[in-house]
Predict the 3D structure of the following.
Amino acid sequence: MFKILKYSFYDLMRSRWSYVYFLFYLLLGLVLLFLNNDLSKAVITLMNVIIILVPLIGTIFGVMYYYNSKEFTELLLAQPVKRSSIFLGQYFGVALSLALSLVIGLGLPFIFYGIFNSDAIGNFSLLLITGAFLTMIFTALAFVIALTNDNKIKGFGYAILLWLFLAVIYDGIFLMSLVLFEDYPLDKFSLIATMLNPIDLSRVLILLKMDISALLGYTGAVFQKFFGTNQGIILSSVMLILWVSIPLYLIRRISNKKDF
Amino acid sequence: MKFLVFILSLFLFSFNYGTANTIEVCGSCNYKTIKTAIEEASANDTILIQKGIYQEYNIHITKPLTIIGKGLPVIDGEDQGEIITIEADNVTVDGLKIINVGTSYTTDFAAVRVVKSENFLIKNLELEKLFFGIYLEKAKNGKVINNTIKGDAVEEFNSGNGVQLWYCNDVEVIGNNIKNVRDGIYLEFSDGILIKDNLSQNNLRYGLHFMFSNEDTYENNIFENNGAGVAVMFSKFITMKGNIFRKNWGTASFGLLLKEINDSEITNNKFEENTVGINIEGSNRINYTDNDFRNNGWAVKVRGACYANIFEKNNFFNNSFDISYNSKLNDNSFDRNYWSSYTGYDLNKDGIGDVPYRPVKLFSYIVNRTPETIILLRSLFIDIIDFSEKVSPVFTPDNLMDEHPLLKPVSHDIH
């Protein structure tokens, strides 16, 4: 597995795309800091970017990589190598290189700007960790989609749809149901609904750091307990890890059963 | 000659009578208790209390006296009741530590109470384990300076206020440090009061609380981490200047709560990290100028029945919501403020954005209706509906906008 991981990783590191990705984040960080001149404001803008763009890029890149390296995968499958280690190795190669581009690309401009001497360091590192998690989650989901769809166009379609659903439509349905059922106690429902969407989950995790004053304005014992104590952060982190491990398990299962 | 001697002796005698004597109180002195010293003292005397612990309560001061503690002597009330009651004009109390005031559900026992007196001076006291701290009742022209009041309040119903003014006029409350009581400073029916340079923190209810008090000023105070910040209710002509309202977090927490306030000035204050910066209800003709709102949940929450208020030259930095309204009506004006979430441009480079800014978002309207939706804050979907509302307002007041949003924060000159 590690050999394949190493191979995929180096392959990707040499490829144009990870440079483009890395340069994009580098530029984004520089422009944000240049325009804002204010670290904490830049961190807020960055949050929007991370929550929307990182999943999108993770999904598309994951699907693309799978389809592009399909022939090589088939060649590997003929060798005496375990199936799960082939796919998991490829997955980790993609996810790690993407996460690395993100962390280094965004980290460099902020380090030069003096993030270590600023009190925004906590928020910023949380942002990067969530970004890395989102990359892992959405690349894994992309691999699951690609594995179940041999048709490239269909696979891309589903992947984009998945992103669109989780990033926009889910929140729309969520909001509508909250407004429709406003007469009922909704705090448990809204917390559970948040947990079931990795994008919402990471958004709330970042909000817990940045907008805690607004979140604490709501009168509800469950919310209070969730937002007011460390329980919120611990629970959200556990859910994020679950969100990585469940698609990973699916990759393993599907790849073991799949007929190539 | 005889006459002259008589006059002279009369003069001397009266002079002698007029000079203030100093009476000392200590464990080995003639006077071992403060009470006896006060009883024996004549008007305008000075009572010097040496270092030590005095178990006394119900000390009534009924003549003009100066009471000074040396090396912070402790008066321990042993939870029996009120400790010092001032019932005369021109009394000074300085440098005492007063502990263990009795708690009662029927009487408001205080560490120091001033009743119907003028020209009092209460300074450098340290109050601990108290019910009420300094209670001024129908008092005038006095000063409460540099006291430290540290309570241990847990519940609102069985705790008292740090400094309470009831039917008082022209009193100055300056440089006090008040924490862990019910209301830090409480004013009821008190006019012409100056509250300055105080630090009021970790109080159960309000850091500062006005009821039916007019023409008062509070400036350069810090209110931090109180149950609900500062409340100004049913009052007129209040000046609020240069105060800092910080970290008032919670479901019913405000930096500043205004209810039925008219004709007041709110200038140069800082509101930082409060759940609600200012909560306004039924308040008219108030000028908000040169204030900073930073990282609040809601910078300003307007609840209704607020007319002719003016918001000018304020800075709004990174608040989750800048302004929130619960109706479509607006009679307040917003002009020349800086909004960190403004996205317009300035083509003629005069520092004023060319596109008006709408500080009320649709989402704040939704959150008012269904509070649980707060969990969707900063989601892409919310940004999309906020944007469409910005383009054509349906739910939010359409005349509510800042026609001249500033591109750079206003720099305020003081501090």
